[in-house]
Design a protein that fits this description.
Elements: E1 2-7, H1 19-22, H2 27-41, E2 44-49, H3 53-66, E3 69-73, H4 82-90, E4 95-99, E5 121-124, H5 128-145
Parallel strand pairs: 1-2, 1-3, 3-4, 4-5
Helix pairs in contact: 2-5, 3-4
Bound molecules: 1,3,4-trihydroxy-5-OXO-cyclohexanecarboxylic acid.
Amino acid sequence: MKILVIHGPNLALLGEREVAVYGKFTLDEINAALTALAKKEGVDLETVQLDGEGEIVEKLGKARKEYAAVIINPGAYTHYSVAIRDAIAAIALPVVEVHLSNIYAREEFRHKSVIAPVAIGQISGFGINSYLLGLKAAIDLIRNKK
Ligand code: DQA
């Protein structure tokens, strides 16, 4: 069983970018924590950071053949990318939406997620734990389906 984690735009700068909002962990540290949890659970994990909307759409399109589930932090695309929303709707894979910050406690333009209606669920506001909870949820989901 293989799970894909997609980190969206600007997330390569974690650890130095708006630390008060996104926390002190770097992307490498988040990926290391995810990989450790995946190992403990006995699943394969791939992580990728993509800034481009088209790149994310392309990766999702290819994911349907290779992975059992996807964890995605779509970054700012969360709030307006119909292309990413449609890419998720097009693939028959469970997709878990995660956010480091609580998007509902921030600026009004962040309160809407166009991704949420096509995701299995959304985890928002727990920093690095949003990813770990998302991975846990995805693993449970896949196991319960079998
Ligand atoms: C984010 C929240 C988005 O609003 C923002 O544009 C991001 C990160 C989060 O993880 O909290 O880039 O997705």
